[in-house]
Model the fold of this input.
Amino acid sequence: MQSIFRSFLIFLTLLLPLSAYAQNRVVVVPPSGDDIEPLSNIVTVAKRNGDFSNPLAAMASITDASASNPYLIVIAPGVYNLGGQLVMKEFVNIAGSGKEVTALTGNVSTTSQETAALVIAANNASIQDVKIVNNGTGGLFSTTIFSDGSNIELSNVELDANNSIATAIVGNNGCSYQLNDVEIYMPRRSLSSEVGISLEGCTINMQGGSINISRDGGTNTNSVTGVVLDQPVDAAISNVDMNIIGGNKAIHQVIGFDIVGDQFSFNEFPSIRLSDLRLNIVSGGSTFGFQVRNGNGSALTIDSTHMQIRARAGGIGYSSGNMNTTISNSTIIVDGQGGDVVGISRFANSLNAGDNFSVLSTNVQLLAQDSIGIENQGLESNRPMIVRDSRIKASTSIDAQDIASTNRTYVSDSIISGDVVGQPLCDFVFTTIGERLDNNCGVPQPQ
Done:
């Protein structure tokens, strides 16, 4: 889809001598005059001298778009109050003049996430170089973009939503999103719930961008969540910054990534690949960097990720249920005062015939006085938990509540600081002061 954009925009730039530059973006000014034929399949929106002054009218004017006859709506700099929902059409793409100078705003709110969207995306359609804000009031839900279609691409876009329950991107029913350098900004408000991205049964490929959510307290108990992946078909997210500031009360829960599967389906989704992420989460309530529920044999990899959590009512860096998990080349730092303070917690039940769990080349650092670095609470049907080439610092570095020999915790080539609970199997493991531990991670007594 990006190639279509590039072809049109390069074509325009070569043909038209009149061009302006705004915030390092090329803004094409259409030629005027009776002797100049308009370019086909390109519709312009501008405050003055465009084909239309509102993107809704521009979209309504297109009636014959197809795979062999795509359209491009070019929007000049300015703030455009849509006055209603922008319902996109298949093979109709939107290009602004840069998210710093082109903004689409509106006020849409209803009683469901799906119908409360300011923009309804379509199959095989793209949006780039705009800012979109749903200033929802009344109703209950407000969403910036919703889709249940495929091949939706957003590039260099900034999104915001505002209401009691606000979400920037919503999708379901097999939707597929390609997100390139998408920035979500949901500034400080007292809302019931805020979510950056919420997808159910969808595919997502997100490369670059950021998710920034903050709230200023309030008495509601709902949570703030960066990304919800509910029974995903496939997911790859990389090079993304996530900054979440939750409320200052213990009732305000924050979750960075909430990954949910179907507890009755085994090996439900192919794989979830998360890499090069930077999470910074501050909250007065309980906090999870990654919360995985009912994974049932699915594969999750977290690589080259830096996570820092500061939570007054307990914080867990990674909490897993029945998911084949590999955490590698990452850093997990958790600072909490009350409740559970855990770096990595693996809790699996007998619904899963056997999940793998590996922690490789990862630094786990817990700053609370009462904390657990790595916790293994699988059942006998689960496979071993492997910790290798890692560094673990907590009051209890390893809590290996092994129930059967099939679910042992193996630690090798690592440095740990803190107590050890249970009987993990250790090989070439040292304390921070250089003492080599025995096969159960106990410090050998001097002879």
Remarks:
- The domain at 96-431 is CATH 2.160.20 (Pectate Lyase C-like).
